[in-house]
Amino acid sequence: MRPSGRNLADIRSISIETGVTKHAEGSVLIKMGDTHVLCTATIEDKAPSFLKGSGLGWVTAEYGMLPRATNSRNRREAAAGKQSGRTQEIQRLIGRALRAGIDRSALGERQIVVDCDVLQADGGTRCASITGGWVALRLAVNKLLKSGLIVSDPIIDHVAAISCGIYAGQPIADLDYAEDSEAGVDGNFILTGRGRLVEVQMTAEGSTFSREEMTKLLDLAEAGVAQLVAAQKAAIA
């Protein structure tokens, strides 16, 4: 039995609310159970200098966790004077994931920055950031299309992410913190709406895993991402 009472393949309740901030070109509040992330997308008129003259656009991300997103206060990274290695790794992951769903030539030489701020954490914050970040990106691109600044849609597919792992010897989908902290194997799976793999992060957290177990986790991830993509579609309908 999972601590949450969910069945092995059940994902947490998901809510994606759009238009939650006044100024951002795209804004989303995504809730995956008790993990809540604010995702905002900002359009910048020029691409990074390394893309100058290439005709290609860029999508990047920044990630942060509010001090009381967890059960004890974490010091703001700005107060420490630098980002943690974890934060840098997560925001690079989010950027890579979102770029997998976009045609950068259709975007033109501009940049879209997706900011993901964790308001409340209960496991799977990077996955929720990717899933919600894609919706914020979609909303920002819609504004570019509506304004006529671009003529063809640069978004080629949905991108969503889910964690899956082995808890108490069983493969389970969408780990919350209680499960993640005790899991023998923990994995993050990023897929497109068509089921193509973008990135897989899997780690044995105390016990190794077999290829058969990895396949079971991938099956759970595919089913979970299909539900997340359906939620994305409903949010932007």
UniProtKB/TrEMBL annotation:
PROSITE patterns: RIBONUCLEASE_PH
EC number(s) per entry: 2.7.7.56
UniProt GO BP: rRNA 3'-end processing; rRNA catabolic process; tRNA processing
Reactions mediated catalytically: tRNA(n+1) + phosphate = tRNA(n) + a ribonucleoside 5'-diphosphate
UniProt-listed Gene3D superfamilies: GHMP Kinase, N-terminal domain (3.30.230.70)
Name of the top EC class for this enzyme: transferase
Any GO MF annotation of the entry: tRNA binding
Protein name: Ribonuclease PH
Lineage: Bacteria, Pseudomonadati, Pseudomonadota, Alphaproteobacteria, Rhodobacterales
